[in-house]
Amino acid sequence: MRSFLTSICILSALVATGNSLICERCTNLHGASCTGVSETCGASKSLCIATLKETFMESHKRQIFEKACGRKENCWNSSMTAGNFRVTVNTLCCTSDLCNNGKPKLLSVNTTLNGQTCPSCFSSMNANSCDEEETMSCRGEETECIQFDVVKRGFVTELRGCATEQMSDSRGKAAFPEKSIHVINFSKSNCSTQLQCSLFLPAAVGFLLLKLFS
Length: 214
Ligand SMILES: *[C@@H]1O[C@H](CO)[C@@H](O)[C@H](O)[C@H]1NC(C)=O
Ligand SMILES: *[C@@H]1O[C@H](CO)[C@@H](O)[C@H](O)[C@H]1NC(C)=O
Ligand SMILES: *[C@@H]1O[C@H](CO)[C@@H](O)[C@H](O)[C@H]1NC(C)=O
Ligand SMILES: *[C@@H]1O[C@H](CO)[C@@H](O)[C@H](O)[C@H]1NC(C)=O
Known about the structure:
Distance between the termini: 93 Å
GO molecular function: phospholipase A2 inhibitor activity
Strand content: 35-45%
Radius of gyration: 22 Å
Bound molecules: 2-acetamido-2-deoxy-beta-D-glucopyranose
Keywords: Phospholipase A2 inhibitor, Secreted, Signal
Subcellular location: Secreted
Largest sheet: 10 strands, antiparallel
Signal peptide: 1-20
Organism: Microcaecilia unicolor
Shape: elongated
């Protein structure tokens, strides 16, 4: 009887909304799974999505899992590392009713140094307290240098570090998809023009000095 009623409900939901997409919706702020209610997506949202966001601060790990209706620009597999903070976001995006009942595939972590060096900072104390000299070596697919501030309830955190191309393309938003968090002041750090960013600078300076004084 119960499943019969459920079927009627789903059926009438389908009839009432024409061919709108139906997705599962739920949020778990402290874990990697959730189950929730069905929601009918608005016309502008043509995908069902399931997003697993993992943050690492020193050795402290936090997982946030969310299922919802979404758009193509909510689909990311990306990561960034800023000082001792790291965030990875993996999204499952699909187009059929309730298809987001699964989990996104987690990309394996690639820790191989990739040769890029970026300005590095994670400063939640206050904005503009980053050490301009601080740099980090990038790993795996995090080949771009980016920097931005995030604002949550008026509280500003400044991030500088290595990011994947998708993270850079999202202008930092992929790392902070939450509606309550605003990403501002995004820019790609331009390492080739910053002294401390150049891997080969010591050699270049040595060469210049040699040229100047020989
Ligand atoms: C994310 O990775 C999964 C598994 O490799 C892949 O199926 C999916 O298309 C990727 N999504 C994006 C937006 O790159
Ligand atoms: C890991 O990252 C390095 C540096 O970007 C790259 O050369 C290598 O192919 C990656 N390995 C895998 C398994 O993706
Ligand atoms: C960051 O953005 C805020 C607000 O838009 C602005 O007042 C501030 O000057 C910006 N800071 C930098 C370093 O660009
Ligand atoms: C990066 O370099 C380009 C060209 O050298 C320059 O026009 C641009 O202003 C630089 N951007 C930053 C953020 O330093």
